[in-house]
Amino acid sequence: MDVDVEGIILCIKEGDETGVQTQLQEFNKEYAQCFFFDAEQRDQRKQRKLDEFRNNKVRECADSDSDCDEYDQEDRGLILRQNLAVVLVKFITTGAKGHLLRVSLRTLRILSRDKKVLGPLVTDNALLTLAKLAGLTTSDASDEACDPDTNFYDNILASLAEAKVLRSRIEEDEGDAEANDQSEECSAVDEDAKSDVSITNSGDVDSISWMGSHRTSINEMHQGSIHHKVLVRGRRDRRESKMEGTEEEEDGELGEEALRKEAMKVLCNVVYNSTWAQERFSALSLLGGLMERLSTSVSSSSPSSVQFYELRLMFLITALRPELRTQLQQQGGVPVLTAALESCLEVQWKEQYECVLQPASNPISLEASQRVIEILKILFNITYSTHRQEPSEDNAALYRHLVAILRLCLMRKCMLSDDTDELQGHTVNLLSALPLQCLDVLLIVPLEPDSEQCLGVNMDCVHILLTFMERRLESGDKIKEKLTPILNLLTECCRAHRETRHYIRKHVLPPLTDVSHRPEEGSTVKNRLIRLMTHLDTDLKHCAADLLFVLCKENVRRFVKYTGYGNAAGLLATRGLLGGQGSRMSNSAGRYSSDSDSDTEEYRQVKDRINPVTGRVEVEQSNPMAGMTEEEKEEEAKTLIMLFNKLSRSNIIQTMGVDSEGKLVPLSSLRENSITEEMRSESENDGEAEEGEKN
Q1: Which listed residue, of 232, 342, 386, 419, carries a Cα 20 to 30 Å from 182's Cα?
Q2: Half-sphere exposure (Cβ direction) of 194: Cα atoms closer than 13 Å
Q3: Do 112 and 233 sit in the same domain of this protein?
Q4: 661 exposed, middle or buried (CB, 10 Å; 0-12, 13-18, 19+)?
Q5: Cα separations in angstroms, 333 against 82, 329, 377, 382
């Protein structure tokens, strides 16, 4: 359906609020779950370009006599939405009130999903108006934007009337083959090359001047071929769809809270879709108001339904604007967000760093779990750089307090299993960002009769982390982003805490008994981790290898024993341990016990027959040189050397060697270094001899 912008404008001019509300409600109902992009034209354009490439008849739009410009691909639906956005921004600034204001904001929320309609929404006046409605500020927009303009709506009506005339002329000329060819040529221009309205609108102009400066362009939009966009039904935000009912059910909410929620949703869309809006959000200092709103909602007895969107907006700006991350942290963001997390989980304290965990406690509600997830994401954004820093005494106490709550996040369940997995994932991300010395809070909880334990230490939390890693190993999608945080976290914890390493090694690297298969074959956690050691992604394979290396106390011999030299070569080469040194790295931060590693009886029986490269007992094979004379063996060796030289000269392979530090280096470098060392040694010997003769 087309938007009756003319009808809406006339109703606004005549003060017919009922008519405006009825038409906007119809628009909202029709497009509630639509996202605006032209799927049909995009597919046609791709096919047209492919055909032109195949026929080698690429045509330049600049050579055409057509008057169409960069807006020729815009259709009537887009033009109407752009005009509707301009009108509604003016309307909510000057005239809309009550329920009509909320309906207008809902329409703007739908329109703000389209990047090409964001122009009037990213001005300072519009952002300040939305921020005031959302409760982030009490300041009004400029007086210029608030002044009534009797010509404003007339100008838009005149523009639309001119556009209709142009459109009717084009429709009359559709039978002209030459005009059709020119229109097709212009439609081949890549839409992605167009400048985004939200970025090019780089000044603080009100909606009136924006409309005036683009009036000609709006008319020109109708000069190209007219196509109706395909509005694709989009999946509603999973969190929002869980927490909220239908639009009719939301209408029963309190007036002020409902307005704040709609304004906050619009701000979230605008900030997400526009770089300019992100910059202006920072320049207008709206973060302070957002922090104040969050602090107020945390201190209230029951959180409002707007809190989730306040947290979502805070996550977006901290993810997209680095300076706002620093600002939020400096303004006490961590204590406020920790208090919000504590409030969502209804934490009760048993000791200073121990929360009460009831075994039969109710699962975390849908609303609370989604707020908790947003808080964890924001905390990660503002603390991820603290991992390698030495915290002050006050910060260390603050982070330990936070870790105690994060332990509760790991142990509690949500109403849906997917939410539980997501909650644990974000908790792991945040734990990996906090200072390592503060994570000891995870282990100080006293033992219970049914607790997992190792060496007298409570391992319930470590068991949850281990189970979480196993689930992530079994999932095949987005394996890098899902696995690297938990692998890094477990590696650091194993290196720092002896009890954690003992417990995880017992489950991941049990004593070897069956060595008839390669270490990477099978479905155990060890098999899966060893397979990752040869993964194509460098970061992922290093994370998996680091964990196993630490579980082996960073001992090369033991590491090769469990993984095979072929799988271990990547990490050993990276750390300069290819020389096969049996001792661990001298600069290792781990504090390990003795290097004793008892072998099972089954392993000792076949130990001499294990291939160190593959890590398994190989089937005995006949000697390929059996029956060959010495001359034939020498001839085979010469042939092999010639083949290697040929491959090396062609740069197909590069012969490598291990230097004195145990690192892989080209063989030519080894020769050069050897010659240099010999010459240096000879010169030193000659110098000593001459000195002796003088004496």
Answers
A1: 232
A2: 17
A3: yes
A4: exposed
A5: 38, 5, 13, 8
| Domain tally, the chain | 3
Write the single-letter amino acid at 652.
I
Instruction: Measure the CA–CA gap between 569 and 582, rounded to whole angstroms.
Output: 14
CA atoms within 13 A on the CB side of 684: 6
Q: Are 413 and 474 part of one and the same domain?
A: yes
Task: Single out the residue in 561, 589, 617 at which a domain terminates.
Answer: 617
Contact 466, 502 (CB under 8 A): no
Q: Choose one of 555, 586, 617: the last residue of a domain.
A: 617
Structure confidence by residue, pLDDT tens digits, 585-613: 444 455 676 656 677 877 787 877 788 88
One-letter amino acid of 437: Q
What is the rounded CA–CA span in Å between residue 593 and residue 502? 11
* 357 and 390 inside one domain: yes
Q: Please report where in the chains the tokens 């230097």 appear, as a residue.
A: 659
Which residues 6+ apart lie within 8 Å of 251 measured at CB? 258
Q: Are 70 and 213 found together in one domain?
A: yes
Q: For the chain, how big is the Rg over CA atoms in Å?
A: 34
Helix H or strand E encompassing 543? helix 538-551
- Span 505-557, pLDDT tens digits: 999 999 888 888 899 999 999 999 999 999 999 999 999 999 999 999 999 99
> In terms of domains, do 522 and 420 share one?
no
User: What is the rounded distance in angstroms from the CA atom of residue 186 to the CA atom of residue 69?
Assistant: 8
Judgement on whether residues 479 and 519 belong to the same structural domain of the protein: no
Which residue from 626, 622, 625 is spatially nearest to 637, judged by alpha carbons?
625
Amino acid at 194: K
Residue 158 within any structural domain of the chain: yes
431, two tokens: 């734990």
- Are residues 420 and 330 part of one domain? yes
pTM over 0.85: no
Give residue 83's domain range: 5-237
* Position 539 in a domain: no
Residue 149 CA to its chain's centroid (Å)? 45
